[in-house]
Amino acid sequence: MKTLRFLTNQYFLLAVIIIIGFWARLYKIDNPIADWHSWRQADTAAVARNFYKLGFNPFIPIYDDMSGVAQNPVPNPHRYRFVEFPLYNAFVYFAYLINGGVDERLARLLSAVISLGSIVFIFLLVRKYWGEFTAIVAALLFAILPFNVYFSRTVLPEPSLVCMSLGMLYFTDRWIFENKKWLFIVSLVIAMTAFLVKPMAVFYALPLFYSYRVKEGKWWPIPKRYIFFTVIAIIPLFAWRAWMMKFPEGIPASTWLLNGDGIRFRPAFWKWIINERLGVEILSVEGTVLFFIGALTKPRPKEGALLHWLLFSSFLFVAVFATGNVRHNYYQTLIIPALAIFLARGFVLMLKGIPNFLPRIWTIPIALIFLPIGLYLSWTDVRGFYQINNPPIIEAGKMANQILPKDAVVIAPYDGDTAFLYQTNRPGWPYAAFPIKDLHDMFGVNYYISVSLDAKTKWVMRKYQTIIQTPSYVIVDLTKERPGFDSIHDIEPM
User: Fold this and answer.
1) Is residue 486 part of a domain?
2) Distance separating alpha carbons of residues 334 and 457, to the nearest angstrom
3) Cα separation of 349 and 49, whole Å?
4) Mode of pairing for the β-strands spanning 428-429 and 447-450
5) Domain of 408?
6) 381 to each of 24, 31, 150, 378, how far by Cα in Å?
7) b/e per residue 221-236 (b: at least 16 CB within 10 A)
8) Which of 46, 334, 412, 486 has the fewest CB atoms within 10 Å, i.e. is most exposed?
C-alpha cells in the first residue's frame, strides 16, 4: 500500500512528467539553426553569439544582418537588433561562457529547461482551481503536445515568455488573495521579467482582473497596493522601449502583426487558426473536440473562472495579433497553456461524465481513444518541423567559416532569410539590397556566397573571381574582378 500511495503521489507524478517532458525535448537537440522558423531562431541565436564574440552588452544587442530589419528600408550597418529585451540571449551567452565556446545545443537545452518550469506552473494553477487529477493531466499534455515540444526547444524567447507569464499569473493570483510580502516581491520580479521578455505577457495579466474582483468585491476605489504593483511592474518595459527609440534602424516593423493584411475574423482567419493550427498542428481534430468540450462546459461555482479568463485572454491575443498568428505558427506558443489546460478538462470531464450528455459508457472510451489519436496525428504533422529545410546552407556556411577572414562581410542571399547568413558566422546581407559594387564600396561587403545558381549568382561569378564552386554552393571574392569583364553590356540582374 505504501508503494502504491507513493506511485500515485501528485509530486511523484509531476516529477515523472517533468522527466518525460525533458526527454521529449531532447529529440534532435543537436539540429543546426536551419529547421522550421530558422529565420527567427537565427536572429535570436546571433545576438547571443555576438555577446560572446564582441562583448556582453545587453543594452546594445547586435546580430548579423546589416540590411535593415523587417520592412525597414534603412540599412543597419551597426547590426542593431532591438526587439524584446535580450534576457534569454543573455542566459545563452552565459551558457556559452561556461562552455568555453558557442554551441547552439546549449541554447536549445536552455529553452527546454525553461519550458519545464511552465509544466510546474500549469500544475499549480490547475490544482488550485480544478484539483490534482486535472492538474496532472494538464501538466502531462503540456509536456508532450508535439507542437509544444518542438517550440519548447527552439532558440526563441517564447519558452521564456510562457514560463514567466505563467509564473506571473500564479504568484500574483496568490498574492492578491493572501497579501503576503514575499508573494508581492516574487510576483513583482516575475511580472517585470515577463514584460521585458515580451510585452505580450500582458495577456496573462488580464485574468488577474478577475482575481482582483473576487478578492475585493468591487472595482473602485482601487487599493494603492495594486496601483503600486502595476506601475513598478511595467517601468522596466517602458524604460527599454524608450531606450530602443535611440536606434530606429534596429527596430523591426511590427504593427503589421496586428492586422496588416486585414485578415482578422475573415473566413481565412478562422480557416488558419481553427482548421490548420488547432485542427491539424496543435490538437488535431480529435483533440480539438475534447478541447471544446472542456472550454464550453460551465465552471462550477467552487472552481472559479480564472482559467476560463485565461482562455479568453488567449483568444484575445490571437484576435489582436491576427496577422502574426496566421503567418507565424510560433506565435501560438503563448496560447498552448490554455489549450493544454482545457484539453485536459475536456478529457477529465469525459472520464467523469457530463450531466445531460452521453452516458459514461460512451464518453470514457471516446476520451481514451480521441486523446492518443489526436496526439499521434499532431505528431505526424509537426515532425516535419525538425527537418533541415536546405542542407546546402549548412555545408556552405561551414566552408565559409573555415576559409574566410574573421572580419569578412558577406552576402548570403536566401530571400532575406538570415538563417544562411547565420551559418557563415559572418556579418552581412541576406539579399543584395543594392548593386554589388555599392554594397562593396559603402558597407565593405567582400564575399558572395550562394546555394543557388540563379541569374544574379552567375553574373557575380562572371564579374568576380570564384574561390570555391561545388554542385551545392559557390563562394566568390568581390574584391577581385575578372579581367576583361564587359561591364557595359553585361548588366547586373536585379
Assistant:
1) no
2) 40
3) 47
4) unpaired
5) 391-481
6) 16, 18, 11, 5
7) eeeeeeeebeeebbee
8) 486
Q: Which pTM was predicted?
A: 0.93
Last residue of a domain, one of 333, 368, 384: 384
Q: How many of the other CB atoms lie within 10 Å of CB of 455?
A: 11
167-225 pLDDT per residue, tens: 999 999 999 999 999 999 999 999 999 999 999 999 999 999 999 999 988 888 989 99
Q: How far apart are CA 274 and CA 336, in angstroms?
A: 14
**Of the residues 362, 384, 406, which one is the last residue of a structural domain?**
384
Contact 343, 294 (CB under 8 A): yes
Terminal Cα distance for the chain, rounded: 76
Query: How many Cα atoms occupy the beta-carbon half-sphere of 126 within 13 Å?
Result: 30
Look up residue 25 and give its amino acid: R
Q: Are 253 and 72 in contact (CB under 8 A)?
A: yes
Tell me the three cell numbers of residue 374: 489526436
Look at the chain and report how many structural domains it folds into.
Answer: 2
Within this chain, do residues 174 and 272 fall inside the same structural domain, yes or no?
yes
Check whether residue 270 and residue 240 sit in a common domain. yes
DSSP per residue, 391-442: HHHHHHHHHHHHHS-TT--EE--STT-THHHHHHTS-EESS--S-HHHHHHH
* Residues 341, 347: Cα–Cα separation, whole Å: 10
In DSSP notation, 105-143 reads HHHHHHHHHHHHHHHHHHHHHHHHHH-HHHHHHHHHHHH
Residues 395 and 287 in one domain: no
The answer to whether the peptide bond before residue 405 is cis (omega within 30 degrees of 0) is: no
C-alpha 478/C-alpha 482 separation (Å) is: 10
Going by C-alpha positions, the residue among 341, 420, 293 that lies closest to residue 125 is 341
Candidates 38, 103, 65, 67; CA nearest to 330 is: 38
